[in-house]
Amino acid sequence: MAAPKISVTLPCYNCGETVGRALDSILAQTCGDFEVVAVDDGSTDHTASVLAEYVRRDGRVRTFSIEHGGVVAAANAAIEAARGRYIARMDADDEMLPERLAAQAGLLDENPGLGLVGCRVRFGGCRESCAGYAHYVDWTNTLLTPEAISLNRFVEFPVPNPSILYRRECVETHGLYRDGDFPEDYELLLRWLEAGVAMAKVDEELLVWNDPPSRLSRNHPRYDVDAFYRVKSEYLARWLGANNPHHPVVHILGSGRTTRKRADLLLDHDIEFAAYHDVDPRKIGHVVNGVPVLDRDRIPQPGAGFCLPYVASRGAREEIAEFLEARGFVLGLDYLPAA
After folding, report:
1. What CA–CA distance (Å, rounded) separates 272 from 306?
2. Residue 100's closest CA among 28, 189, 37?
3. DSSP H or E stretch at residue 102
4. What pTM value is reported for the model?
5. Taking CA 109 as the corner, what is the angle to CA 167 and CA 117, rounded to the nearest 5 degrees?
6. How wide is the angle at C-alpha 219 spanned by C-alphas 214 and 224, nearest 5°?
7. Nearest to 250 by CA among 269, 224, 271, 221
8. Residue 126, pLDDT score
9. Cα–Cα distance between 54 and 244 in angstroms, integer?
10. I need a labelling partner for 61 at 20 to 30 A (CA). Which of 213, 229, 259, 292 fits?
């Protein structure tokens, strides 16, 4: 039996109420040259029986069970069992729109320099009660090109994990998801970007990204904000070592307690702070652990120092970018957002 063009990997755990909708959306794809590799991660509900029914109904669905080991173990087991030359990720509580696989595979077909592609996603939660997630979706949907994805990788996760589709060679060369006290999907993306994998997105909404209260990223400590900043800091420090002409010295924009807590993680990776820069007159003039807090207008001239904006309040990143670029700073050359 010939291998399919695309393998859709689907880790499943106690998702009997949602996995049927996910599978229906996959089987309704306009591109039919695919298989589904669904791994039941030791579910204790009726997930296994739902999967068995879909296997009986459609020969493109393959499934097997493993002892419960978590999403990383299940996702990696599905990847290792995949036979396609392109591998897609799907979550059991999301839904594909009909053109997803065709459009994403087409983007890889047409662009041999790309290793991984995503798409714009449609937020499937309540925008009022889940405003943070909705804002994140809106932001990530603006990042479509390899340059935009690369230069914004340290702000947040630039390509939502359930939307990715990549060449088999990427995982063979750069490795599977890693397990640890960090978000495995973000770590994989940072690792592959660091290795030079070019990533882009189809400029269409091709996935409904649901946000139920039970979603793992809402409940597991590996996905909390501090975990994101820990793994981000490790990769950002290495990026700075390769790209900051003033390495290891940087200027931090922002000096609030939260900003310092997150930026200070870089100190563990031998990054040095010339100063914190702020607009709040109550903070300017202080010295924090030997680092002065200076007025933002005292940032160095472009080419004389590298700036890391670490202010995460809504709208602040955009305002800081406008401020820096009005002074001649170039994104990726003179500054890089990190919050």
Report:
1. 11
2. 28
3. helix 100-110
4. 0.95
5. 50
6. 140
7. 271
8. 78
9. 52
10. 213
Q: Are 151 and 143 in contact (CB under 8 A)?
A: no
Question: How far apart (Å, rounded) are the C-alpha atoms in residues 193 and 223?
Answer: 20
* 1 DSSP assignment: -
Query: What b-and-e string marks burial along 50-71, b requiring 16 or more CB atoms within 10 Å of the CB?
Result: bbeebbeeeebbbbebeeeebb
DSSP 299: P
Q: For residue 301, give the DSSP letter.
A: P
Residue numbers in the chain where pLDDT is lower than 70: 212-220
Number of residues in the chain: 339
pLDDT, tens only, 290-331:
999 999 999 999 999 999 999 988 889 999 999 999 999 999
Peptide bond into 213 cis (omega under 30): no
Domain residue ranges of the chain, discontinuous segments joined by +: 6-223, 243-326
What CATH number belongs to 243-326?
3.40.50.20
- Which residues, at least 6 apart from 82, have a Cβ–Cβ distance to it below 8 Å? 7, 9, 35, 37, 168
HEC sequence for 251-268: EEECCCHHHHHHHHHHHH
Cβ neighbours around 148 below 10 Å, total: 16
How far is the C-alpha of 112 from the C-alpha of 115, rounded, in Å?
A: 8
CA angle 304, 308, 309 (to 5 degrees): 125
Return the sign of the alpha-carbon dihedral for residues 15, 209, 232, 294.
negative
Q: Which two tokens stand for residue 97?
A: 């729109």
Q: Looking at the domain covering 6-223, what would its CATH class be?
A: alpha beta
CB 38 within 8 A of CB 49: no
